[in-house]
Amino acid sequence: MNKLILFLILLLTAGARSHAVEVLLPKGGDSKWAYYDEGVLEGEKWRSSDFDAKEWKSGVAPLGYGDEGMGTEISYGDDTDAKHVTTYFRKAIEWKAGDGEMLEVLFRCDDGGIVYLNGKEIARKNMPAGAVTGKTLAVDAISGDAETAYSRFQLPLEGNLKEGGNLIAVEVHQANPSSSDLQFDLEVNLYKKGEEPKVDHFAEGMAAFQQSEIEEGLRHFSLIPVDDPKFEDALQIQVEQLFSPRGLNRPEKGIEVATKAYEAKPEDLEIVRAYIRSHVLAGKGLTLPLEKRPLPEKTPEEFAFIAIPMTFENVKEEFSPKQVAADLDYLEHMIDNCYSYAERRGVDWKIALDVLRKVVKDRKISSAELAARLERFITLFGDPHTALRVPPFYAPTDRAGFLPLSEGGRVFVIREDRSGFLDSDHRYLKSIDGRPLADWLAAASHRTPKASPQYERQALVAMLRQIKWLRTELQLPESDKVKLTLTNSDESAEVMREVSVDSNGGSDLRGRKTQVLDGNIGYLRIPSMRSDQEHMESLNNWMTQFKDTKGLIIDVRDNGGGSQDTLKTLLPYFMKPDAPLRVVNVAAYRMPVKLPQPNPSGFLGLYGRGLHPVTSEVWKDDEKESIRAFLNTFDAKWKLPEGKFSDWHVMGIRPSTNPKAWHYIKPTVILCNAGCFSATDNFLGGFKGVENVTLIGTASGGGSGRMQSYRLPNAGFSLTICQMASFQRNGYTYDGHGVEPDVEIPARPEDALEGGGDSLLEAALKRLRAE
Q1: What tens digit of pLDDT does each residue of 81-99 get?
Q2: Interatomic CA distance for residues 419 and 260, integer angstroms
Q3: Strand 551-555 to strand 428-432: parallel, antiparallel, or no bridges (unpaired)?
């Protein structure tokens, strides 16, 4: 056949096929959904067409929180550590009967969800089998491109879609209550008989994996060419699936796939990461082999809390001694080869792990007991980013109806709605249920990382609300009331107050809005380090409005972190136009595997973190000289174990990092406290020492990690560990220290009350008005 004729036939056929698709429900901003984001909905009525959803909110897709590109940002509740597990969506669609045979549903959700059409389930993604409730967790936490991937589901038109009105209902579930983000979008298409949708191998592979069709998923991924934008993500997923016992358990094949990609593109950071990870997951070529040691005869006192007797009821899943031993060997191998902070605190963690081995040796152990003992072990490293991610099935998360807060070495108590002290004449907590406060704090320490003193103290005090779990730790009887003994400031008088065990959660006080305050002082409130473009544009717009102010206050108190983009956007405003590159973070990557060749691009420059070695091409020649000069004088207070880390990587910011920035020369105060963590630590560290900028408050929490997740092969628990050691400009690690303020001013107890004032803000205003 003539090639031109063949081309025209193919062209015409392609055109005919594209017109054969009827889009019943478009994805993205062309669709508006009703949604419920206020907690659990009981039963099935919410997904029926006769359900009254008039009071529900509405917004355009995609809907979610925590990620950029959302059409509508929804709520997750009042507590970042106990977000709503499930969010609900509804939308009516019309269909006029016509020529159609197959329905195609493209479903995007983070982490998991179920789609119903006219009350009937038609798609399920990353959810356990069987009936679910509003408290059911998704099977796995997903990340990267998997969050935005659309899984394809196909079903016959007949028996599913009806002429006239139809209702689409969707429930989206988180994998854990502290998940940082949620996404949802949906598209529904109708195809005529004989028409086939264009195959997106990445989406098809993801959909297959979600349905546990591992071989089919790998087949699709193997068809993605190396120059495809999704090739690197597909490679990472292949490595995981080829290794995982829950996948195909073919670790050597994972190494083979990653090695071929590495040989083709050895300079690509994602491929280098996949190459390293494939070897780690397969346990091949690692720097440190697993060592066998005799178990300790006695338990050292410092590790006794790992070995104390535990009893859990109604926990059916158990693991054999062989399974547990294999998981603990795997854990040791990961920590020894991959974990950046294994040696930072000087704790003999291998002895601690052997104590755990001895406790569980030669007996079956429940999933709850294993999770509880492993969580205790992980606290020894003092790194709040590193954690065992397990459902809270062994530790009730109910919170008692009071708010305990720290003041120096004491704990004061306020009402959970922050309307006042629980007892205005007796503010301080002395005992709970007749047991001294010290006993409760000691019990709380079993799940609290041995981190910076300020982070640990805040976490311990906050955990006092988890009365149900703490009572089990202290072997106290259950009760629906909590008896608090309160005392006055000199402990000369005390009273007893009762509160309920089941709480509404409490409220967040720091709801102040960005504005210009009296005296022409700018006030910029940053509650989270978001990464979306809207947030960056808002920061630039507010800086423009603050241009003629006499001073500026940036309030990042209780900001738990996020991305580095806020720092990159704001810091250039406080740098002279001709200022050299400013190093704001120094880090090194924990090297578990020796690469066949050097990697001048480094290992930490992924996902916007901006950490690169001096050999990276991202730096100009003069910047390389500036970085070398800085590193020549850099004094790391914790000396990295020899031979285990990469060369130094740095995050550097220049005035041109934000092209919209101009030089703000007025005095600036940044308000900080122990609630500042992760990316907010980096934010404070980046501004520390900048001309005209003063940090006021108390030291930040201390945490700056690049995390990587692993999964215990038998228990299935997800282990997140930091694979970089992160330092401040002054040589101290962020972890274990935090960023010290220039002027230390602790908050007053009254500051925690609604309408009780703000001593730090008042101090900042007084300072700026005086200047």
Answers
A1: 889 999 999 999 998 877 7
A2: 63
A3: unpaired
